[in-house]
Amino acid sequence: MMSQPTTTQVNGGANLAGENARSTANRVAHSAAEATQDCAEYYVSEPAKDLFGLAKDYAKEKPDVAAMWAFGLGVIVGWKLKP
Q1: What is the superkingdom listed in this entry's lineage (predicted)?
Q2: Could you tell me the pTM of the whole model?
Q3: Quick check: 58 and 66 in contact, CB under 8 A?
């Protein structure tokens, strides 16, 4: 004759499965967060480096135009920031 599992045995197995699932979900979420942060750092820092490099190259080629842009931007920012 087969014995029926008790409710403690059934619930204990469910709790163990739930803990394993939770642990796996946490591990996957942590890995995804790390990968996303690495990608975000790359896609924010690299374009910024490229833009600064382009601005430096432009300033070397046309220093008078770059100086006028810097002066104009300085005037506008100073005008907007004055109290």
Answers
A1: Bacteria
A2: 0.42
A3: yes
